[in-house]
Each structure stands twice: as structure tokens, then as C-alpha cells.
Amino acid sequence: MIAQLMLGFIMDKEMSSKTVFVAGHNGMVGSAIGRKLKQSDDIKVITKSRAELNLLDQQAVREFFEEYQIDQVYLAAAKVGGIVANNTYPAEFIYENLTIQNNIIHSAHLSGVNDLLFLGSSCIYPKFAEQPMTETALLTGILEPTNEPYAIAKIAGIKLCESYNRQYGRNYRSVMPTNLYGENDNFHPENSHVIPALIRRFHEAKLAGDDKVVAWGTGKPMREFLHVDDMAAASIHVMNLDSETYSANTQEMLSHINVGTGVDCTIRELVETVAKVVGFEGAIEFDVTKPDGTPRKLMDVSRLKSLGWEYSVSLEAGLKDTYEWFLANQDNFRK
Predict the structure, then answer these.
(1) Distance between CA atoms of 130 and 151, rounded to whole angstroms?
(2) Cα-based distances in Å from 94 to 27, 40, 84, 87, 172
(3) Which residues lie across from 284 on neighbouring strands?
(4) Model pTM?
(5) Residues β-bridged to residue 287
(6) Which segment, 84-88, 150-154, 213-217, is predicted with the most confidence on average?
(7) 287 CB neighbour count, 10 Å cutoff
(8) How far is CA 20 from CA 46, 156, 174, 183, 261, in A?
(9) Rounded to whole angstroms, how far apart are CA atoms 235 and 259?
(10) How far is 172 from 23, CA to CA, in rounded Å?
(11) CB of 282 within 8 A of CB of 212?
């Protein structure tokens, strides 16, 4: 009798669990979402390596969704990089990102997945958008040229989700994160974003005993940064909002939500904070011949706050956490 009761309990638990596919689970955001989801006993997380599932292969993605009965999808897979990478590989950035999101969103729809969260980027907004940037700024001006191909792909992803919601009644939501950093970031010396690039540069300068470090640009642009663990928490929060609450706070045909801190700093302030965290005591110089990019990028996160979520990791605390992770994994960044 006891054995039957236990079996019934196990079966009920399995029946109530959600099967969640995290696309891009090896990336910074995808891995953070996966870590967060695995803290819940009622969630079964499915991941596939690139060798197991090529997200650029339409047929392979379609067959994957046919094989698994998936309840939710977090679409965190993307080709990403900093200014240098975006300038050097524009074709790959627009083609691969369009292809990945098209394959996943369409296959999810065909297999009956009703809940999907698409992760975009703050670069979708115009270069000279009014600050802080609201969701309504989308498609109101020209984009920053250095990452236009990537931004266009992300805008297409938002519109793809909106279109499936409009035509088929799907619950495909989009979140637009500000600049992210943290565990599993890309620390490549040329193709990384600003925070991992600075952490590596200052760390190597400290080890080499250099008396100065040169940073790109004037140091004047303003940027906002969000720790990836906060991004994961916000993503899961938005995904699991009930439709009534979500709809009441989201305008019709405007299904994307900004995710950030609502607080920014100058690049100079960021550089100085990274130097402090790393322990570099030399001089800091700015190479004004290098591009600054957009003058300011600050997200208006009032909509997300109205939905019950705010960030919790301060910039300095997040940088310390990221540097500790870098030190523990630096052998992987030698190439």
C-alpha cells in the first residue's frame, strides 16, 4: 500500500513538472538561466550542445521539437561579440542570428509550444534615442552602424514573436537586456565585450608589471551594466507571469520588455572600477582615436518594475564575482 502511494506521488510529481528547453545553454545568459531553473524540483531542463543540435539546420531543429514534448523555450542562443567582432563579421552576425531564431521560433510553433522567451539586446534602439530608452523607441530612428546587422536580426526576432502571437495566439515574449556581464562571459582578447575585455587586460597588465593600460575611446560615453544572474532571474520572472498581469502591463503589439538596472556610469568610471577590483595600480590612458560608439545607452525599466522585478547585484559586487570566476577559469582563456 505504501509502495503504491509512493508510486502515485512520483507519477503526480512527474506529471506536474515542466519540460524547458534552454537554447544556448553554454553561453553566458543561457547557462545562468539553466542554473536558475535547475534550482526548481518541478522543472526538467533540456539542453543540447552544438554537436548534438545545429541550430542553423532547420530540419534538425524541427526534428528536435518533434522528439521532445517541450512546455517552455528560452531562446538565448545567438552569435554575439563586441565592436571589433561586429565590424569584422557583419554577414555572420545577421545571417546566423536570423537563422537560429527563425528555426527555433517556427519549430516551437509547429510543435505546439505555447510559451517562449526571446532574448534580444538594447542595441535594437536608435543610436540617438531619447534617454532613458523606452520600449516605444523601437524603429523610431537610425541604428548604431557598428552593430546594425546584429540589431536588425534582433528586431526581426521581436517582430517574429509578435506575429505568431497575433496570428496564432501564442505566448511568445521578448526581453531586451542592457549590457550583460558575469560568469561564462567571453574573455577573448579581440572579440569580447567591454567588461571581460577590461578584466583580462588589467589582469594581464598586473601580472606583467605594466605601468599603464590603454582603454579605447574618450571614456565619456555612458553605459548600463547588469549581472547575468539578475538577467536570468528577470527572464524567468517574465516567462512565468500570468497572461492577465503581463497583458495589463504590456501594450498591444508591443511585446518586448526592457531588462536592466536603470542606472548607468561613464566608461571612465567603469574602467577605474575594474582596475580597482583587479588590483592594477598603474596609470590609465584613453586612446581617443578609437570609436566610442553610442554616446549613451540607458534602459527605462519602469515597465519591468511594474511587473514586480528589480535588479539586486551592484556593479562593483558583480565585477568582483566575475573576476573571481575569471581567475578560477583563466586557463581556458589562454588562446
Answers:
(1) 18
(2) 18, 35, 15, 12, 21
(3) 213
(4) 0.90
(5) 216
(6) 150-154
(7) 11
(8) 6, 24, 17, 22, 27
(9) 9
(10) 15
(11) yes
Q: Are 31 and 119 in contact (CB under 8 A)?
A: no
CA dist 334 and 33 (Å) reads: 27
For residue range 76-102, list pLDDT tens digits in order. Answer: 999 987 777 788 899 999 999 999 999
The one-character DSSP state at 135 is G
List, by residue number, the catalytic residues.
150
Provide the Cα torsion 50, 52, 55, 56; round to 10°: 90
**Domains, the chain, with CATH or none:** 2-185+224-263+296-313 (3.40.50.720)
User: Are the CB atoms for 214 and 287 separated by under 8 Å?
Assistant: yes
Q: Which three three-digit cell numbers place residue 24?
A: 544556448
Dump pLDDT digits (tens) for 25-63.
999 999 999 999 999 999 999 999 999 999 999 999 999
Q: Are strands 265-266 and 222-223 parallel, antiparallel or unpaired?
A: antiparallel
Q: How many residues does the chain have?
A: 335
Max CA pair span of the chain: 78
Cis peptide before 132 (omega within 30 of 0): yes
3-state secondary structure of 220: coil
